[in-house]
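Researcher: Here's my situation. A collaborator sent me these components and asked whether they could plausibly form a single complex. I don't have experimental data yet, so a predicted model of the whole assembly would be a useful starting point for our discussion.
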Amino acid sequence: MASASTATDNGVPKPSSSPLPVDASPALQVSKRLEQFKTTIFTQISILALKHKAVNLGQGFPNFDGPDFVKDAAIHAIQGGKNQYARGFGIPELNYAIAQSFKKESGITVNSETEVTVTSGCTEAIAATILGLINPGDEVILFEPFYDSYLATLAMADATVKTVTLRPPDFAVPEMELRTAFSNKTRAILVNTPHNPTGKVFSRKELELIASLCKKHDALAFMDEVYNKLVFTGEHVSMASLDGMYERTVTMNSLGKTFSLTGWKIGWAVAPPHLTWGLRQAHSYLTFSTSAPFQWGAVAALSAPDSFYQELIGGYRTKKDILVEGLKSVGFKVFEPEGTYFVMVDHRAFGYEDDVAFCKHLIEDVGVAAIPPSTFYIDPKNGKDLVRFAFCKDEETLRTAVERLKANLKRPALSS
Amino acid sequence: MAMSSTSCCSGLLAKRSAAFAPSPIQQLSLLAQRCNAINLAEGFPDFPAPLEVKEAAIAAIQAEFNQYRHVQGVCEKVAEAFENTHGVKVDPKTQVTICCGQSEAMAASVFAVVESGDEVVLLDPAYETYEACVILAGGIPRYVALDPPHWSLDVKKLENAFGPCTKAIIVNSPHNPTGKVFSHYELGAIAALCCKYDCLAITDEVYEHITFEESKHISLASFPGMQQRTIVTSSLSKTFSVTGWRVGWAIAPAVINAAIQNIHVKLTDSAPAPFQEAALVALQSSPSFYVQLQQEYKERRDFVCNMLIQAGFSNFLKPQGSFFVFAQLPDKCPLNDVDYVAELIKEAGVAIVPGCGFFHQKNWTTMPAIQDHPASADKLHMSEQGLDMAAISGSGVYLERFVRVAFCKDMVTLMAADAAIKKHSARLNSPSA
């Protein structure tokens, strides 16, 4: 039987030395473009949270598990001997299931053999898309705040990054800033919708604006849609479904967030054949193929009835309400999320100079961990007033967090 | 109903991905599938993984180890095993990264150390992915041909490939496709060059536990001066017959490992969590597991070598490790490797792999030396002494004369393949052609 992991785990990645020291011997120096990428903020916060026994609303993964019918399918696959290399771009059954799912979401029929690629999580889909389709020196537009792996992967591809800042309260797409960011050197724009960390769901109008600029400048759209099943307000619109966009869009998703199985690392990219070709090449050199038994689990997952998704949203809506209510009651300015399981708040009522200082106080004195989002901006100042909380936790955990906030978080004005 | 306006988007492909063409191997693979051929082509087993390892994975899924997870215990077991086997001390906290298979460990390692313009020495024949990783990282592959039929390493030729721009050499031992296990002498020579030119070594040791007779697997990292300049990559896949689980690792000096770790996190975030848990059990296997693994593979190796001899193959290195035989086509066979493989699929229903995909002669730094091959049956036991190394004039014809046969298959499969090949040979030799 499986022996338990050591007590130091708890899902906390092992800390790497940070920052990378400059080594005396030139031959041993790591490639320059990667020196800036140190231990992630998530690791640092998690270590601190563990140390102070804080309720962890920083990590963006659930503390509850996925559904039995999906796990059973994976177990069945292991027992049934499906433990050898899966076809590089995905087992046919999963590619087919993804194509079916994509059709339901976007209305577009795709060829599961030539337009669907299975990867080790959406993270790898993004890496393969960027490394396969971006040339050194190409310009790529990112919305900030951005998920931290985007910048690192773009650096690996030697891309030039142009950012467009989304600002509270709506985190609306600033049209003029976006138009200015596009040029004839723009190869692609990377859009995460629903959006981590803001909880924003890009509106149809916003996506149409982006689409028009992509067409005008002959650029690609890379869409990270891992939270597309977690929408509370409005609707998730598939960029690929907009007029003239399928031929220039890579749509990416994964199993992890929807089915609470983030550790299985099953993701995928849907794109027309001429784009799929490039990302498949990169994928074949990055990981060669994706875990076979969990692909079988994913096949079962994607056969879930509509009621599964309705319950999913219902459950997350309840969690959202518990947390948002709690955050408002203690004095945060809350930017109610339209989707995802994240919420951003303004912490300035509590008198701390920036998000890092506030989050440190939150862990050490209040007993709740959250993420300081300044790390998700090119210029950290753009995020210093904000904090990201995650509500992908069971209700008891959320209630405990809210209790601690109410008991221990004090506003300067109230303490005189 | 995919939009087919490829003309507008053809310029959108990254130039580097356009350089990678589909291999003839892929076409043959499709043919093999269509003909339902017996698969001695692909390097994965058709027999089950060890039961206790599978059960460990299942238990992990049931115990809800299904979220992002880093299992530090795997690093500890990897470090411990490496120290026990190779005598090199490894700090599991700072020197080991768990990746999605050795594939990702290699990709992350190459990205960590190779920059635009760096040269990386590769030994031919070579698994095709190494070059692709080097090119993706902006590096330049520099090939040195191993000399058939023993695939020996000519140290002078190797040194010619090193220069001021050399960042690293990639060494795969036990070796795919040839089945060679690099000798202590050869590894020592490589180590000496790495130290002399102050460069790195990245190793692929996935077949480390599949060796035969006296050919023990030695890690380059165990040589003097190499511990601080070697990245070792390996995985569970071949040892535990779980090629589809994607659990591998890199072992490297702390500074380099930190970079590998950071890149890995950006490429895939983590290896599948339940399989990391299962790795804890796998890596605790008793010595008798490894002994049995070798015995079973030796039996298969001997069977397949006999099969090939009876089919007319006579000039090949009897594998010292890995689960591949790299055999030269019989002299009297007029076909090249690709055509031979296609015919074997269609006529005998057995799939093997043409060797051409492993050779990169356009990038050789020096021409190989090739030995005249006497048509004698005990070639398999040739020793190093008494070989005449005659240089060829660069025709490179032998590059299309090798085929790779995998024996990581159940004996039932191998016997079926043998029967099919015998039947095909009989048909070919029958007077009523």
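Model: Some features of this prediction you could bring to your collaborator: The two ends of chain B are 49 Å apart (CA to CA). The longest helix of chain B spans residues 287-310.
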